[in-house]
Amino acid sequence: MIDPSTTVPDSDAMSETGALSRDEQRTWGAFAALLDLMSSALDTGLHERGLNLFSYAVLAALADQPDRTLRMSELAALTHASASRLSHMVRRLEDKGWVERSPAQSDGRGNLAHLTDEGLQTVRRATPDHVAAVRAMVLDPLDEAGREQLHALSCRLVRQFEVSLPECD
């Protein structure tokens, strides 16, 4: 994961365009490994349900709506996805019969994604195992102070992407 050629033996601090310092490598390496391991483990847990982390997020976002329907642009924002990535995922979910897409009737612009009954059952079956995995891998290993620190650090890093996250308001 960490390229040893980026280590500079004589210096622990580098310019903005130079290699990472040892401390920066250590921090980045641990964080990058966490991202990879966490994503892979959560995907593996959802795979037996025919889902991955992104498809689960799409289904769960729709399931949270009173009518199980969202404009595609709103769904993209909720799942932090580009319009193109979301469109490809919704097409795959349509193929499975879990989501239906239709034109927005209110203004004739844009499309709506609607969670079908089968999609709702799929996300409901996957949720208990997913929640247990999130607790086991992220929440339970931390005490209350650690969870607060993780929340604060996550929000601090998210803000640089200029997205609105209700969890961080």
Automatic annotation (TrEMBL):
**Signal peptide, first to last residue:** none
What GO molecular function terms would the record report? DNA binding; DNA-binding transcription factor activity
Q: Does the keyword DNA-binding apply?
A: yes
| Gene3D superfamilies in UniProt | Winged helix-like DNA-binding domain superfamily/Winged helix DNA-binding domain
State whether keyword rRNA-binding applies: no
Source species taxonomy? Bacteria, Bacillati, Actinomycetota, Actinomycetes, Micrococcales
Q: What is this protein called?
A: DNA-binding MarR family transcriptional regulator
Every copy of the HTH marR-type domain together lies at 10-159
Q: For the region Disordered, give the residue spans.
A: 1-21
Keyword list (alphabetical) reads: DNA-binding
BP GO annotations = response to stress
Any Pfam family matching the protein: MarR_2
